[in-house]
């Protein structure tokens, strides 16, 4: 990846290696689809759909969970990885054609899955076809994503440490999707094998750990090592502590998923397996937190940008969730308070980090697409000239404050307060998306440099320029 063009002060300075950057054509489409899912999920929570106004395993709650985990977070991660895996390994993406059919299959599979949950809950009287169709479509969609990213990583061996985090994350989503397919086939009446039925009955925690812990959190940890170092001009970390954290996290996921499935099939104690996995995972998070603090302290950019400041809020949410989990486990109250912990992880840590990094990534990719080819030919703005942080910061602060307040409301089981807080989250998210739209349309760029001769206004949903 080139040096961040916002780091310099001259509008015409040639940034390092910009001609070597390849833009992923469909990353913006993934981002846009993901953001639509986020808004739908927040709207549903605001009107009282799903938990806490319905049981946590009700059809309504499962619709909400999968809109968030699949529609928002997974599509966001897939779009980001199509752009940043080549950055992590300094190799081009294996195929720039596969992301579009993968996106189509994932969106169609999510729609079929929502249909299946509605049928399961008796909200639709149609024949139970949603789950089997969803199993096929989601399997094909994620297979295309995994094939594309895995081939890219395989060609770059030996992998740098951040890319190894991503590799483990890809293994985790493979396991998560496999478990999800088993659930869908059993619930749809297609699979009746006793072991598969047992996994469906007891394997929901493994499904959640693989998705939230492995695919989303572990992958985000690896990518954040590179992005935070790049955007704050900090040294990249590759020391013993970082390696130990990686191995602890990978071991935690292996113990939970492989050990957990084995325990279910042979009738062993699943809580013991999950406890061992939790201890390893906690060690990984502590070491990761120490590394991130070191990045912030060692940065050369003394005044950090909005995305890095808001990433600190997301990291604080992760730390709070980890502490809360440890406290609840020690008190034997985790099962009773699992909902606020998961909500804080999903919306404080993962969604907060995703929105913060989107603010920078959209600006960075838009700059590369529009102004990268113009370097040395005409005056060009910096990346920071595409954004107005003073206007956006209020919406990010509102988002995090509302998320933390919603977590408290869940803890005290106050549905009305929770709906008010998610309504504020919805307003904040819509306003952040509005800022992303302004970035993409170059509305905040100085008119004298907005479109130099030869530059084109980027399309909203597709990157039209690829540089090699």
Termini separation: 12 Å
The Cα radius of gyration reads 22 Å
Helix/strand-derived category reads mainly alpha
The best one-word shape is: globular
Secondary-structure element pattern, one letter each: HHHHHHHHHHHHH
Contiguous helical run count? 13
Mean pLDDT: 91
- Given as residue ranges, the uncertain stretches (5+ residues, pLDDT < 50) are 7-20
Provide the β-strand percentage band: under 5%
According to DSSP, the number of beta strands is: 0
- Biggest β-sheet strands, sense, barrel: none
Structure explained in plain terms:
The protein contains 13 helices and no strands. The chain is mainly α and about 475 residues long. Residues about 5-20 have low confidence and may be disordered.
Itemize the secondary structure elements and their pairings.
Elements lengths: L26 H20 L12 H31 L9 H22 L9 H25 L6 H27 L6 H9 L1 H29 L7 H27 L3 H29 L7 H26 L6 H34 L17 H23 L3 H26 L28
Short description:
The chain has helices spanning 27-46, 59-89, 99-120, 130-154, 161-187, 194-202, 204-232, 240-266, 270-298, 306-331, 338-371, 389-411, 415-440.
Name its key features.
globular; mainly alpha; 70% helix; 0% strand; 468 residues
């Amino acid at each position: 990846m080139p040096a961040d063009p916002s780091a310099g002060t001259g509008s015409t300075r040639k940034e390092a290696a910009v001609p070597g950057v390849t833009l992923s054509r469909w990353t913006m489409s993934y981002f846009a689809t993901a953001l639509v899912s986020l808004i739908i999920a927040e709207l549903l929570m605001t009107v009282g759909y799903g938990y806490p106004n319905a049981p946590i395993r009700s059809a309504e709650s499962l619709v909400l969970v999968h809109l968030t985990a699949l529609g928002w977070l997974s599509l966001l991660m897939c779009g980001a990885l199509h752009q940043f895996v080549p950055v992590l390994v300094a190799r081009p993406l294996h195929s720039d054609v596969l992301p579009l059919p993968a996106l189509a299959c994932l969106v169609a599979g999510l729609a079929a899955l929502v249909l299946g949950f509605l049928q399961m809950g008796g909200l639709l009287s149609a024949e139970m076809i949603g789950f089997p169709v969803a199993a096929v479509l989601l399997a094909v969609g994620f297979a295309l994503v995994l094939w594309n990213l895995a081939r890219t990583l395989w060609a770059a061996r030996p992998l740098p440490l951040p890319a190894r985090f991503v590799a483990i994350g890809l293994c985790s989503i493979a396991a998560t999707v496999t478990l999800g397919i088993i659930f869908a086939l059993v619930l749809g009446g297609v699979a009746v094998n006793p072991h598969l039925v047992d996994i469906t009955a007891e394997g929901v925690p493994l499904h959640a750990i693989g998705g939230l812990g492995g695919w989303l959190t572990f992958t985000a940890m690896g990518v954040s090592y590179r992005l935070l170092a790049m955007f704050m001009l900090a040294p990249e970390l590759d020391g013993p502590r970082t390696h130990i954290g990686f191995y602890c996290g990978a071991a935690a996921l292996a113990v939970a998923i492989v050990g957990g499935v084995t325990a279910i099939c042979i009738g062993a104690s699943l809580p013991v397996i999950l406890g061992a996995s939790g201890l390893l995972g906690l060690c990984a998070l502590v070491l990761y937190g120490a590394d991130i603090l070191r990045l912030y302290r060692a940065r050369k950019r003394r005044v950090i940008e909005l995305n890095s400041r808001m990433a600190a809020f997301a990291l604080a949410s992760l730390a709070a969730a980890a502490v809360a989990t440890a406290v609840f486990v020690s008190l034997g109250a985790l099962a009773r308070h699992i909902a606020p912990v998961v909500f804080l992880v999903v919306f404080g840590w993962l969604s907060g980090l995703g929105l913060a990094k989107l603010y920078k990534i959209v600006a960075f990719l838009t700059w590369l697409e529009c102004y990268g080819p113009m370097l040395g030919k005409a005056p060009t703005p910096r990346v920071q000239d595409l954004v107005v942080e003073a206007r956006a910061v209020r919406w990010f602060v509102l988002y995090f404050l509302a998320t933390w307040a919603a977590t408290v409301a869940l803890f005290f089981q106050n549905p009305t307060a929770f709906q008010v807080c998610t309504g504020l989250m919805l307003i904040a998210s819509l306003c952040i998306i509005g800022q992303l739209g302004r970035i993409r349309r170059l509305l905040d760029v100085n008119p004298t440099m907005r479109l130099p001769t030869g530059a084109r206004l980027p399309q909203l949903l597709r990157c039209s320029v690829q540089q090699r």
